[in-house]
Amino acid sequence: MKKLLFTTLLLIGAASAQKATTVRLGYFPNVTHAAALVGLEKGYFQKELGNVKLSAKEFVAGTALNEAFAAGEIDIGFIGPGPAINGAVRGLPVQIIAGASNAGAVLVARKGTGIKSYKDLAGKKVAVPTLGNTQDISLRHILKEEGLTGKVTIQPLAPADVAAAFAAKQLDAALVPEPWGAVLENRGGTLVGNEKTVWRNGDYPTTLVIVNTKFAQENPELVKAFLRGHIKAVNFIKSNGPAAQASISRELLKLTKEKVDPRVLQRALKRTEITTSFNLDALKEYADLNKEAGFIRTLPDWNTLINPSYLNEVK
Amino acid sequence: MQRTLAPKAKRTTPLWVWQILGVLFLLGLWYLLTSVLKLWPPYVMPTPQLVWEELRYGFVPSENPNDGQLIHAVTGSLRRVLLGYAIAVGLGVVLGVILSANRTLRDTVGTWFTAIQSIPSIAFVPLAILWFGLNERAVLFVVILEGTLPITLAISSALLNVNPAVVTAGKNLGAKGLKLYTHVLIPAAVPNLITGLRTAWSFSWRALIGAELLTSNPGLGQVLETGRNISNMALVITTILMVGVVGGIFDQVLRRFENSTRTRYGLEVRQ
Predict the structure, then answer these.
(1) Which of A267, B43, B101, B271 lies at 20 to 30 Å from A165 by C-alpha?
(2) Domains in chain B with CATH codes
(3) In angstroms, how far is CA A303 from the centroid of its own chain?
């Protein structure tokens, strides 16, 4: 009995006190991850976390971020719904705790292909960042709607390499997250599908905030502190157009060593809705499409995958 | 089976029984560590059951668009590697003969061949994509490159090492020029050629999988990449097993061919 009481006390102690001394964040250098970029550049996350150190790591695709999650190297991540769902279905201990951006993905065709509408994609080669990722699923949805399923070659290719593949005429079109869409357009690509026509009139999540379930259970205060920083970053972007743009630009320059054309950035931001919420129906439809494409066989348990309680407490 | 050497201690159970026992032991260990002891979560190290399921999905088509994908992947990869390998063998024989016949070429180009052979094939993939595009030709280029070099080197050294007595005998019997090659030198070089063929096969097969991973042509390499992209480690392990099995079967066939040829040439004593 005494032993039992002792263990119970220990457990309570563990639940109330924070265990972590570092919060490890994963994100991509994309405009659709603008909240992460601004949160880091303005120091919002660190300010809210206080003495707990924030260590941020950039990834190029959800695949690599999922791997880091599986290996226990990341606690909180900005990621697309595609990989978030795929990971959860395989048993990755993740929970979706907030939204980060909606829309912000466009379909651009290479100049000279004559592609003007989705119908013209028949028989063409279209790139998406990786198979099974968010843009891949959106593309499959478009093809299904247009009756083009199986008539288009889907080519996984890193968005940064699309421009080179266009120049070498090895690709006809690409469905990419911003700023890559604006970059391709700036280099002469034709916008075939904008952020609204790609899916659900633009009301679909592109980036979500996920957390390692175990980390969240052990460090609820840190998760809430992080989300306070996230809300601040989102609000800053929403209300300070040019200043937010400058902040994103500085962070992108630091990460990619490339100065993004301000016009490109402005256009990319206009097409992306930075937010802390997300449309649950759209997320569920993503999972259905993922299953239809054969990437998952079971749907995730939404009650455990989505946990809005942290966000609700700090809002 | 004739025994010419001192008899070994007699094995009572045939070799294949031991081989099957070995596989069963590994399966049992895998099952114990992942399913019983649960040392790792399935998204890090999947259980044998999960891999078996993927294997079944991979070979039994259904309404799920990805079911049956391993059949297409294996046939796609095999078609590609056999085409590349055949071209490599043809090129390798020609290059090897030319190289053996010309000392200057051997001293200049020949040394590069050995150097190029030490470069992993995957290093050529980015260049191949630029030269040929994101398509099958880029993959074939890498496969041919990897397959040609070992055959070229095997043939040229085999031809240079043909017993001078055989060459003199052939010449005395009236063989010269091209005839000396087709009737004397090449037949004498056959055992080494076959060893070269086997090396070239494993080089080509490995080059193929690596190139498919990077260029995403439908094949085993791409299934591996898809498995990674959708966080399906069971699919990754299933594909690795398929790569090993297909590569191993071909290697075994070539090894038997090699052994029988070497025996026929009196280079190996049959036991």
Answers:
(1) A267
(2) 69-264 (1.10.3720.10)
(3) 21
pTM (2 decimals)? 0.84
Residue ranges of the domains in chain A?
Answer: 21-102+204-314, 105-202
Q: Are the Cβ atoms of A131 and B230 closer than 8 angstroms?
A: yes
Q: Provide, rounded to the nearest whole percent, the portion of chain A with pLDDT above 70.
A: 94
Q: What is the DSSP letter of A261?
A: P
CA atoms within 13 A on the CB side of B20: 5
Name the helix (H) or strand (E) containing A177: strand A173-177
Question: Does B225 sit within 8 Å of A165, measured CB to CB?
Answer: no
Q: Which of A66, A79, A86, A90 to mutate to test the interface with B (most CBs of B within 10 A)?
A: A90
Residue of A nearest to B61 (CA): A294
Contact A133 B44 (CB under 8 A): no
Half-sphere exposure of B75 (CA within 13 A, CB side): 6
Whole-angstrom CA distances from B232 to A84, A211, A256, A301, B175 are: 13, 20, 30, 18, 62
ipTM of the complex: 0.81
CATH code that applies to domain A21-102+204-314: 3.40.190.10
Residue ranges in chain B modelled with pLDDT below 50: 1
A-proximal residues of B, 144-203, CB under 8 Å: none
When comparing pLDDT for B179 and A148, which is higher?
A: A148
Does the beta carbon of B65 lie under 8 angstroms from any beta carbon of chain A?
Answer: yes
> From the CA of A179, how many Å to the nearest CA of chain B?
22
Contact B229 A157 (CB under 8 A): no
Q: Which residues contact A261 (CB under 8 A, 6 or more apart)?
A: A183, A186
Does A134 lie at the interface with B, CB-CB under 8 angstroms? no
Q: Do domains A21-102+204-314 and A105-202 have the same CATH topology?
A: yes
Residues of A in contact with B134 (CB under 8 A): 125, 155, 157, 165, 170-171
User: Token pair for residue B260?
Assistant: 């029988």
Tracing tokens 């060593």 back to the chain, one arrives at A257
Residues of B within 8 A of A171 (CB-CB) are 134
Sort out which chain A residues have CB atoms less than 8 A from B64's CB and list them.
Answer: 294, 297
Using one digit for the tens of pLDDT, what is the confidence trace for A77-108?
A: 999 999 999 999 999 999 999 999 999 999 99
pLDDT category, A127, cuts 50, 70, 90? Answer: very high
Tell me the DSSP string of chain B.
Answer: ----SPPPPPPSS-HHHHHHHHHHHHHHHHHIIIIIS--S-TTTS--HHHHHHHHHHHHS--SSTTTTHHHHHHHHHHHHHHHHHHHHHHHHHHHHHHHHH-HHHHHHHHHHHHHHHTS-GGGGHHHHHHHH-SSHHHHHHHHHHHHHHHHHHHHHHHHHTS-HHHHHHHHHTT--THHIIIIIIHHHHHHHHHHHHHHHHHHHHHHHHHHHHHH--SSHHHHHHHHHHTT-HHHHHHHHHHHHHHHHHHHHHHHHHHHHHHHHTTSS---
CATH class as words, domain A105-202: alpha beta
